[in-house]
């Protein structure tokens, strides 16, 4: 995730495909042609075909498989908070966290973010802060240029918010500031410090990560993939202070 390169190597073809203007097989055939003519390496070709024929098709079939009540009947982590007002206003300046601010600003300007921004910045923030998954689904549907009904349940309710308790994804996609610091160039220019979990400049993602694990501990403790993160959380000597701080946090 780079401040000056919002698109990176992504195709932005979800829009014409979701609008029915471009058939997914046309994309796959074009990519295979590029491989046959020596214009694209096998790793790139495999990646693109997997996204379109693998992920997109899987999500489409999950929509029918999971059924019409999937979004309204799943809230495994008991998330009932309203979305932060900056979401609805698409106002990046309403938050100080550089990574989130940049993402919201970009949604407002273009209606599009690439997958990891959706999952690990916006989705991660909502997961940690306990945003209502149904409200988040509505927001993604309304705010994104590729936001169609069928693509939301598996991606938002399942993958991003773990609201189905593990039907779509085997564990919650939660991560702290250390991950975001490694994967983005936002932290250097941020008022918060990704290494800090306590204090005025404690990163809301770092502190939020631990407070999130504390809140959902009972609901995820049976998941073997959560064993190590939960053990790390239990070792934190300042956990109670972090939880209290995040409960009262007003600066994001
Ligand atoms: C929280 C969240 C919300 C999302 N919301 C949407 C949405 O509203 N509309 C949407 O089409 N996708 C959505 N996705 C999936 C994915 O992020 C987008 O399809 C992708 O970012 C679109 O950009 P692109 O066309 O440049 O994708 P590329 O990275 O170039 O990938 C190529 C194509 O693969 C397909 N694809 C890859 N992953 C997925 C996936 N998980 N689900 C469906 N198709 C996939 C898309 O058709 C995409 O155009 C969401 C993912 C998350 C985690
Ligand atoms: S310090 Fe925290 S809030 Fe700021 S950009 Fe890094 S991860 Fe985001």
From TrEMBL:
It comes from the Bacteria. InterPro entries: Crypto/Photolyase_FAD-like_sf, UV-DNA_repair_photolyase. PANTHER family: SLR1343 PROTEIN (PTHR38657:SF1). This is Cryptochrome/photolyase family protein.
